[in-house]
Write a structure and sequence with these properties.
Elements: H1 2-28, H2 42-63, H3 70-89, H4 96-122, H5 130-153, H6 159-163, E1 171-174, E2 179-180, E3 184-185, H7 187-201, E4 208-211, H8 221-231, E5 239-242, H9 248-260, E6 268-272, H10 274-286, E7 291-295, H11 302-322
Parallel strand pairs: 1-4, 1-6, 4-5, 6-7
Antiparallel strand pairs: 2-3
C-alpha cells in the first residue's frame, strides 16, 4: 500500500513539473518572461485544469483501500516520465519540427496518464486497461478538435464595433500572404490590402503596418502591399513595413516589439481572412496586445473554407498548448 501511494505521489510530482516546463515553453516560444504570466490565458487554463485533474485523481487513488497492480501503477509513472523527458529534451533541440513532435508526444502521454488515473479511480478491479484508456484519449482529442473547429468556423470579426462611429485604433496591421510573379499580390493578399485601405480611408486607423517576408529575388509580401497602397493614394509616411517574418507569430511579435510597445499603442486592428483571425487575435491577447479584427472579403468555396478552418484549428490548438504560431 505504501509503495502504491509513493508511486502515485511521484506521478503527481512528475506531472506538475512537466506542466511547469510546458508553461515556461509557452512563454519562451514568444520571447516572453514568466513575469508576464496570467492564468486567464487559454493555454494556462488548460495546464491548470490538467494539474487539478491529476491531483484530484492521484488523491482519489491514494486514499483507496483497494488492491492495485503495482506493475500498472509503475507503467503510468514510466509514461509520465517519458513525457517529461520529451518536454525537457525540447529545450536543447533547435529544430522546430522536432520540437513539435516532442510536444505532441508529451501531450498524448499526458492525456493517457490523466485518463488512466480517472479510470483507475472508478474501476473495481483497479487494473490499467490500455485500450480503454487509448479509446478515451482518442475521444478527447476528437472532442477538443471539434469544439475548436466550431469556434474557428463561426468566428465573427469586430467590424460592427467601428460602424457605430465611436471606436478608433492606433494602427491597422495587414498580415502577409502569397505574392505572385515576384511583384503582384495574390488574390488573398489583394483582398487584405483592400480591407486595410478601407479601414484607413474610414479613419479607423491612422497608419497601416504591413507584414510578411518573401523569397530571394522577389518583392516581399509587405513591399508588395506598400506599393499597392501607395497607388491607392495612401501617404507613404503612414505605411510601416516589416519584411522579414515568415509566420503569423513572427509578424505579430514584430508588431509587438517594434511598434505596439515602443509607440504605446492602445489598440490595433488585425486584417486577414476570417478563418485566420481567431488565431491572430489569440496570439495578440496572449502577448497583452489590445486587438480588434477585420475580415477581408476573399471569396472562398465552402470546401476551401472548411479546409482552411481545419488547418487553423490544428494551428490554434498548437498555439494554445505550446505557444507556437
Amino acid at each position: 500500500m505504501k509503495n502504491k501511494n509513493f508511486i502515485l505521489i511521484l506521478i503527481l510530482i512528475v506531472s506538475v513539473f512537466a506542466e511547469f516546463c510546458l508553461t515556461y515553453i509557452r512563454y519562451s516560444n514568444q520571447s516572453l518572461y514568466m513575469e508576464n504570466f496570467s492564468i486567464l490565458k487559454t493555454g494556462n487554463l488548460i495546464s491548470l485544469l490538467d494539474v487539478i485533474l491529476v491531483s484530484a485523481f492521484v488523491v482519489s487513488n491514494v486514499i483507496s483501500k483497494a488492491k492495485y497492480r503495482m506493475g500498472h501503477i509503475l507503467s503510468l509513472l514510466f509514461i509520465a516520465s517519458v513525457g517529461l523527458v520529451c518536454i525537457v529534451g525540447s529545450f536543447v533541440i533547435p529544430d522546430k519540427d522536432v520540437k513539435l513532435v516532442l510536444y505532441v508526444v508529451f501531450f498524448i502521454f499526458k492525456l493517457f496518464v490523466i485518463v488512466s488515473l480517472v479510470l483507475l479511480s472508478f474501476s473495481n478491479s483497479k487494473k490499467l486497461h490500455v485500450f480503454n484508456s487509448l479509446g478515451y484519449v482518442v475521444l478527447l482529442l476528437v472532442g477538443i478538435f471539434a469544439i475548436t473547429f466550431y469556434f474557428v468556423y463561426t468566428y465573427s470579426d469586430d467590424s460592427a464595433l467601428y460602424k457605430k462611429g465611436n471606436r478608433k485604433s492606433d494602427a491597422g496591421v495587414i498580415l502577409g500572404a502569397a505574392v505572385w510573379g515576384g511583384n503582384r499580390p495574390s488574390p488573398v493578399l489583394r483582398e487584405r490590402i483592400n480591407k486595410g485601405f478601407e479601414i484607413y480611408q474610414q479613419k479607423y486607423a491612422p497608419r497601416l503596418i504591413l507584414t510578411g517576408g518573401g523569397s530571394p529575388g522577389e518583392l516581399t509580401e509587405a513591399e508588395v502591399s506598400r506599393n499597392e497602397l501607395v497607388k491607392f493614394g495612401v501617404d507613404p509616411r503612414n505605411l510601416l513595413v516589416e519584411a522579414k517574418s515568415n509566420s503569423t507569430l513572427e509578424q505579430i511579435l514584430f508588431v509587438r516589439d517594434r511598434y505596439y510597445r515602443k509607440m504605446n499603442f492602445g489598440r490595433i486592428i488585425i486584417v486577414s481572412d476570417n478563418f485566420h483571425l481567431m488565431r491572430a487575435s489569440e496570439i495578440c491577447r496572449f502577448n497583452m496586445m489590445n486587438v480588434d479584427t477585420f475580415a477581408s472579403d476573399t471569396p472562398l468555396s465552402t470546401e476551401s473554407n472548411m479546409n482552411f478552418c481545419v488547418k487553423e484549428t490544428f494551428a490554434i490548438i498548437v498555439f494554445w498548448l505550446f505557444g507556437l504560431g
